[in-house]
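User: Could you go from structure to sequence for me? I need the amino acid at each position, not a summary. Structure tokens:
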């Protein structure tokens, strides 16, 4: 099994056993690896710990039961492996900022943890840890022609609209056009409500046609760390953000903030065959 297969199997096992106590050692034993190695694999693939994921799933399923039934709170607590009403209430309040009884009585809305859907990607060992796989590459300046979009990645309608416009640009200028490469250059403005600027573009030297409706953008020459992800980057924004955060912490590499981009993606004409979607992050 590769790392993704191990974690997907572990998630399924957790789902089947939410009614009882589960521990790191039990899960690791299923795959004949050490608890610490399994801990690192799970954290790398999910960006959370085994303990926090199991507890979050138990509490989320218990919350659904509280809302859907009139069963006693203690019975629900025992059903999901909690030792007592007190322990259940303490963990429930810590996660959802409300007690189980008030959640049920006042019909309060909380953010539940769904079963994880793991993004397929490659990993590597580094500094006694497991991180997203990457390589380093120096690239020369690239002049692009394209269009810019602004959106909040956590707002579904804005993300979907940005993806739709990205598809339209890709169809017109890449799939049906003469360019052999498609770039999406991103600048992320971090706050409590992140905003993303995404410039979809093709190399100027590869475009034949009217440029009056297109804007110019330069990708400066720099050293980049390169990662491979599947499908549409915007749909897995949260996974990428957490992957990059851990990658920086483990490798001690430094981002190149002197250039006016945070990252860009690259897709070539053979994407439909290879499913290779590359992410470039500028580093020093």
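Assistant: Here is the amino acid at each position, in order:
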């Amino acid at each position: 099994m590769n790392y993704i297969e191990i974690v997907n199997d572990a998630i399924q096992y957790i789902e089947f056993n939410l009614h009882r106590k589960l521990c790191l050692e039990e899960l690791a034993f299923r795959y004949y690896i050490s608890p610490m190695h399994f801990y690192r694999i799970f954290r790398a693939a999910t960006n959370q710990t085994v303990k926090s994921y199991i507890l979050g799933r138990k509490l989320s399923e218990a919350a659904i039961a509280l809302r859907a039934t009139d069963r006693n709170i203690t019975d629900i607590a025992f059903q999901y492996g909690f030792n007592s009403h007190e322990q259940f209430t303490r963990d429930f309040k810590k996660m959802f900022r409300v007690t189980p009884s008030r959640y049920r009585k006042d019909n309060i809305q909380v953010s539940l943890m769904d079963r994880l859907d793991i993004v397929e990607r490659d990993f590597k060992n580094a500094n006694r840890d497991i991180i997203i796989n990457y390589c380093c590459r120096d690239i020369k300046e690239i002049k692009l022609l394209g269009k810019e979009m602004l959106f909040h990645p956590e707002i579904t309608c804005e993300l979907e609209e940005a993806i739709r416009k990205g598809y339209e640009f890709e169809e017109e200028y890449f799939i049906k056009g003469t360019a052999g490469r498609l770039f999406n250059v991103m600048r992320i403005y971090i706050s409590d409500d992140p905003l993303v600027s995404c410039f979809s573009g093709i190399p100027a030297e590869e475009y034949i046609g009217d440029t009056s409706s297109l804007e110019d953008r330069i990708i400066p020459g720099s050293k980049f760390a390169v990662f491979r992800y599947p499908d549409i980057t915007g749909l897995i924004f949260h996974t990428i953000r957490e992957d990059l955060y851990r990658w920086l912490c483990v490798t001690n590499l430094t981002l190149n903030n002197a250039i006016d981009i945070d990252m860009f993606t690259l897709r070539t004409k053979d994407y439909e065959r290879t499913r290779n979607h590359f992410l470039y992050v500028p580093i020093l």
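One structural detail worth keeping in mind: The longest helix spans residues 156-175.
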